[in-house]
C-alpha cells in the first residue's frame, strides 16, 4: 500500500544551501539542494567552469571529502554495521524538520519527520532510504552493534522520537527495497521530482516502547550494549531518569507492559527505570567489554556512565540502582557527550565551556593523582556538542559550537593524556551568506582548536556553522596504498553533513 509522503517532504527546507569547498576558487559558490551532494579533492582543485566527474568514470579522482544537504538541523548520526573491509557504508542521519529546529526539552512532539539513510563510499553520497516517522523528530538513533553484519538488510536501528516513543526498525537492503517495493509501504507524493523521494518508505515497527510505561519520561539519548549479544538498550530521559530494555525474539504472549511488536518481529521488555541525575541525561556510555576479567565476569553488562545537566559524573551498576557505584563531583557545567575507554581506562567528556575532560578510572593512577582529571580548553568558549572514538582505534574525534573538528590521540597503555595530542582536521565557517568548509591546513593557519598563541579571543559564532554530531566509521584497508582509512561524518545546524576521508 502506498502512502502519501508529501507531508514528510514538506517538513524539510528545500532551499539550496550555498557552500564553498576546499580547492574552490574564492568567488565560486556551490548551491546544494535537498538530498543533493558534492565531492571535493584538495590535491585536485576544481575550477568553477570544470564539469563534475562522473562517479562511473575510469579517470575519476578519489575525493578527500564530500558534503550533502539533509534539509535541517542535524541532531544525531550513526554508521550502520558493515562487513570488514567494505568500501560502501551507510550512515543514518536524524535531521530536525524546519519548524522544529529549536525545541523545549521534555515536551512531547508530534508530526512528520524523516530518518535518512545515506550511502557513502564509491561515488558521491546519495540518499539510500528515507524512513517516515510520525514522532515530530528523532532525538537520537543507534544501530544495534553486530559482530557479523546481518545476512540481509542493514540491521536493527533504535530511534528515540520526539513523541517519547522508542521505536525499533529492521532496515532492509536499500537496493532490495527499491527493486521490490511490494515488501514495504513505499511513499508517494506531489514532490516526486525531487531527488531521492522515490526512496521514502514507511517501514513496519519491529517493536516500540511508549512513554507511558516509564511514567511519562521522554527519552532523549540511546545506547546499545556493546558486548555480545547486544540485547540491552539504554535510554536517557529529559527528566533525569534512565530506562533499560531487553531486546529479543517476539514473545508468544501479548507482550510486556509498554511494549508492542509487529507480526513476526521482536520483543522489547522493560527491565529497569530509575532516577539517575538531577537534570536531563544527555549521554550514556556502557563499560567496555574488555573490562571483563574472565569470560564469566559480566560486570561490564551492568556498568553505565551518565552525564548531562548535573554537577556529578555518575557510574551506575544496574544491579543496584538505588545509589551510584561511583560519583565524582565536577564544576557546575553541562555535559553533552561521554566516551568510556578501556585502555587507558577512563572517560572522555564534552562540556559546555568548550573543553574536553579526561577522568581516569585507573585505581592505581587515582591514588597517585586525585581526582585524576585533565581539562583541555581552547581559545573558543562555545560548547563541544559531540565526541566519538574511532571503533577499535586510538583516535577520539570531537566538534562543537565553533565549527571546528578536532582529533585527540589516546595511545593504549598511556596513563596521561596530553594536550599536544590534539590535531585540527577541518572546520566550518559562515561567511557572506554561505557555509565554507575549511581543510586542516586552513584551520592551522587560523589557530584552530587548542591553538596555543595568537588565536582570536572567544566570540559568538553563527549558529549555522555549529557542529552538533560527529561519528567515525570502522576502518577500511586500502590494499594498493597499504593504509587504513575511515570516513568521519559531522553534521551542522545548517543541515550540511561533511564526510571527511581520514587515515587511522
From TrEMBL:
Its main location: nucleus. Keywords: Nucleus, Transcription. One of its GO terms (biological process) is transcription by RNA polymerase III. One of its GO terms (cellular component) is transcription factor TFIIIC complex. It is found in: Nucleus. Coiled coil: none annotated. It comes from the Eukaryota. SUPFAM superfamilies: WD40 repeat-like. The keyword Metal-binding does not apply. This is Uncharacterized protein. It comes from Coccomyxa viridis.
